[in-house]
Structures are given as C-alpha cells and as structure tokens.
Amino acid sequence: MTNKIKPQPGIMDIALYVSGESTVAGRKDVLKLSSNENPYGPSDKAKAAFARTAQTLHRYPSTDHAALRAAIAEVRGLDAGRIICGVGSDEVLQFIAQAYAGKGDEVIYTEHGFSMYPILAKAVGAKPVEVAETERVVDVDKILAACGPKTKIVFIANPANPTGTMIPQAEMRRLAEGLPPQTILVLDGAYAEFVEGYDGGAALVEERDNVVMTRTFSKLYGLGGLRIGWGYAPKAIIDVLNRVRQPFNLSETQLATAEAAIRDLEFAEKCRSENARWREWLVLQLRELGVGADLSTANFVLARFASVNEAEACDAHLKTEGIIVRRVAGYKLPKCLRITVGDESACRRVIHAIGQFKGVR
Under a CB-based contact definition with an 8 Å cutoff, are residues 292 and 305 in contact? Predict the structure, then answer.
C-alpha cells in the first residue's frame, strides 16, 4: 500500500537544529560556555515573581499579554499596542515567516546568520537565499543586490550570532529604504541589550512600515529556560501576527516573571556592565595568546584559530578541562569557536585552558 501522507514541501529539507552541548563525560565540574547564557541567572525579583505564580497554576493566563506589553513599553519607551509576545523571539520570527512568506517566495539571510532563518523559510515552503558577508559583517549592498520581486523577508541579527559584529543605524536605515516594496526587514535583536545606548532598531520601526524588531528575555535577563520573547512592528503587521498567534501561547508564569525581569533595571545594568568588562578582557587575552578575536558587541566572543585542525584540537582540549564552548562549523566558520562571556571565574578558567593548549601557560 502506497503511503500518500506527505508533509508540505520544504519541511523534509530542514536539518534539525543542534543546540550547544551541556555535559562532558566523566566531569562533574563542567563549565558551560556554549549557549550564551547569563552567568548570573535571573534577578531575585524575577525569581520571586516566578514563585508567586505557583498558587495560580490552575488559572488560564491572559490572552492579550497586556501587563507584560505595558511593562516593556514603559521601560523601552514604546507603544504597547505595537508589541507582540511569543515563546522566545523564535516564535515571533516564526509568526512573521508564516504570515508573510510561502511557496514561490524568497527569504534572505546572511552567510553566518542565525541557523533558524533558513529553517523558518523552508517550513513555510519559501526558498532561503544566503547572502555573503564581508569579513564576518553583514553587507547591506550585497543584500540589496540579492533582492528581487520574490523577496518577502530579510532576516538580520544585529548584533549578529555567532560573529558578535553589528552594523550601524545608518546602514540599517539604508537597507530598509532600499528594499523592494513587498519586503519586510526583520531586525533580530536577541543581543541588543548588551550594546550600550542601542535601541535594537525600535526607532527605525517607528519611522517605517516595513521593519520589524524582535527581542528576547533569554540572554541579558537570564530567562532562557522559560522561553519568552517579543516583537515591535507597525500596527498593521502586529494585527496580522496576532491572527496566527495561539491565544494562550504564554503562561502566567512566563508573563509575570518576564514583567518582573524587565522592571529590574538595576540588575539588568549590572549584568550589562559585567558582560562588557569581561568581554573586552576575553578579546584582549585571546589576542595575546595569538588567537584572533573581533571586538564583540554581544555576550560571547568568536575565537578565530589558524586552521580547522587547531580549532578542533582546542575544543577537544577544553573538554578535557571540563569546559564546553560552541563549535560553529555549521555557520561556515570551521576555524572558530564561540565562547560565552561568563563571570570572572569562568573567563579566567577558559583563558587559562586555552593558554595551556597554546603552550604559553
């Protein structure tokens, strides 16, 4: 009997997402620097809000996320009516692809861009189009040259993962202005909070009708385990996205914890400043060890080795020391390792181990 039950075109072309490792065989003192997690975890206020929700787990959450949207709007100076919340910013990106791309359409992402972008395109039957970067930086001219009548979405992360590089506001504006009229520019701001004074593209969203910004609570706010994100877009696009959003996509636990987290400005600033301090230290130390490293704008550093063999050997050595970093060959960076910026102890431990590998410590 012939099986006629088949998935939609594009779905079987998707390679399953591989997350960062978290264990090392035979080691209990594992230092995980592979997933860009906040080494300080969530704030005490966020943890208290999380605990309080245990009393109301039998209640359905709100469907409009009004309290969390109001808190985001207050803290960020935005219009609450133009905010949408999702299960991580990944779900908001999924809403965009689902609502605005399909069979026969093209979705642009860049050479070292987040691996979910082509997955989202294939999931809706669209064609993912990869555009080259220039020295690990998004190249606006190359993106514009790749655009055409079939281009529906352009995804860029700013700052970018896994490179840690970013393009300035003027370049983002030039990209938005140069896109075809049917194209949406999506600015993935998962790491935007780590850049002092950067709005993640919010001002550009308010200026134009073709730009969407996404953000997450997984990085700076230390809530990766709860999966909470949000997006900011023109009202017309928000109206569309809410039509494909499940009404109860976020629990009361997620909503209350995220609200407490974003209102805890003191804790967020502490995490931001400590990250900046140790990020710079990591870059300088890597360079002193003869390992290339761009100035990062996120909460990780991309360490560039002389060869694929050296990168793989260093990764293997780090594992013997109980340290897990992220190999990024899947992002077309086979000579590189991505290292999360940890606290002081973590940063000193990983640099000491790399120094041992290089034979200088």
Answer: yes
